Amino acid sequence: MSIYYRTSQYLKKRIFFFLEKINIRSLLLQLGIFFLFGFFVSWIIHNTIINLTQLRITSGLGFLKMRAGISIPDSFIPYSEDSSYTLALISGLLNTILMSVFCIFTSSILGLTIAFSRLSQNWLLQKLCMIYVEIFRNLPPLLIILFLYFGILQEILPPVQKSLSLPFHIYINQRGIYCPALHFQKIWLWSSSIICLSGFFIIRRIKNPFNQYILLLHLMISLAFIVWLFYHDTFLELPKLETFNITGGRNISLEFLALFLSLSLYTSALISETIRTGIEGVNNSLKETGLSLGLAPGLVMRLITMPLALRIIIPPLTSQYVNLIKNTSLGIAIGYSELMRISNTVLNQTNQSLAVVIIWMGSYLSLSLIVSTVMNWLNKTTLRGHGH
Amino acid sequence: MHLKNIALAIYLTIITTEHVSASTLDTVKARGYLQCGVNTGLIGFAIPDKKGYWKGFDVDYCRAVAAAIFSDPQKVKFIPLSAKERFTALQSGEIDVLIRNTTWTMSPDTSLGIEFTAVNYFDGQSFMINKKKLPEIKSPLQLSGASICVQSGTSTEINLADYFKKNKINYQPVVFEKFTEVNAAYDAGRCDAYTTDQSSLYATRLQLSAPQENIILSDIISKEPFAPAVREGDQQWTNIIRWTHYALVNAEEYGITQANIKNMIRSDNPNIQRMLGTEKGSHIAQELGLDKEWVTRIIENVGNYGEIFERNIGKNTDLKISRGINALWTHGGLQYGIPIR
Question: Which helix (H) or strand (E) holds A179?
């Protein structure tokens, strides 16, 4: 009689012997937790409905179709007072995304530059960047935003009537930047972007660098030709000074500028530290191996240090990006029309706090999840690309 | 962010299972003080002074209610609320009554489970401009293309949009969440005009760097009747708040003041006797859940409607607001005391 047989006999004698099998036990446990959680959620929903009825509060999502009646400055989709609350919220969400994209782009480039400057041999550059990082990293972002908006931009920029006039009809004043706007037909935009994209992919396939340049030249010439071809549809609108404001052209509001600058400065300080840690985290002996093989320092950085550093950098970088997205909500303090400000107004006009707060949380959650997913994918490709 | 109250209200709607059905009056009496929702800081209406003592038109209304219930006008806890939080705080029971320059409109009255009582101040939305920078502007219709500073989230923002749409004029809104930021931006020259309720404009002007340079346009673009609000479903409590207001107005009509109340108690005018509880066999106050001397106590402690007005926002204050449409109906205004009988 084997030990196994005896053990199983022994188990059979016990009533709840199946509970001692690990996979069944874990399945039961999970089922239990699932039902408990389901019960908890349904209890909350049930309770909320009862409470709302008892408090005589009308709830639901019906308000989303109503006319909003509020005006939104800085909306870059067609929105008017007659649009619905849905469109108002979408407009706010798009402004949040726009701000996030601009800030992620700028702060990444700035952060990378600063990280490399801090690692350079130049003592002055190194110290200056250290001061920069220590200042911006240690201030609360809201303080930077308010200081930049009320303390600096509104104080140093001239009033409308004395606008700073730059070349190419660009004006700067207390209310923002005004520049000429190019109006063209949409088809022009689409066709040129398709040509550019296809050109890009063709270039990538051509190995000979000389041929690449030739093709690039061809592309540019054909682009110029298309511009000329559609010239009669395209016109330039110049900004001009009127009684109260500069009108016409494109306007970048002071609120956008202040939020963009302060968030970029703040996040770039954090990102530069992330990148520096990543680069310094790569084992020195690997770099030395590269150098002893006769590789130039630039090549060592590109071929050895960076690929290894990226694996350390990307996970914390993801949370910096997610933080940045959430920080755009601070725009409410200076009146930038991002999601937080718009939903606040919607909440106030409709008093549907429950519904609006859920929409609002859902939006930030999905934005953050999208960024995390993209960054995780990037992380995986980086790992795979180097044989891991 | 003043999200605390909203979070609290949502938490209460989701989690609470028991509903206290005791009357608000009993709850307030048992607690020993009134919880009154007021503005976070509006000169003349509700603002704490340097010692933290609350003063203002709305504050005196809270004190009047406390005087009616407790015979002590100081038995009030003032809860400062932003425009966004005010209704939620009332719904969730954090306050007993909302007296916070809040406009009575149909939608909150019918859909939020709250009830407005009586209009204690008739206001309207207007514009403030810097007359040094813009000497030729006399009417908001001349503000075509102007940048206009506005606080988000009240009826102000919609009135502004409606007015400019109706008159087919373009404008550029500059929207902030808090008064302090709107003030700072307007002061710095970010906008050409500042719009909000006229009473608030008078208060705001005092906080600017050069108040005398700014004028408030006389054009009114909206109706803003301010009224105290209570939770729906407790008629006795609604009545107490409503009749406190009418008692104040009636007292002014009959010339009962803080100074002469002692003599007025001995008046032989039946209307005054009925109000001050000296009429024989009258049980008006009992039906309200209060005792006979409730009006006497109110007037003793805070004075009549006119006195509250003049003390906080009238001609001799910094705000210098004239009675205008808030004068008694006998003087061509809209304040009309519903008879206490």
Answer: strand A176-179
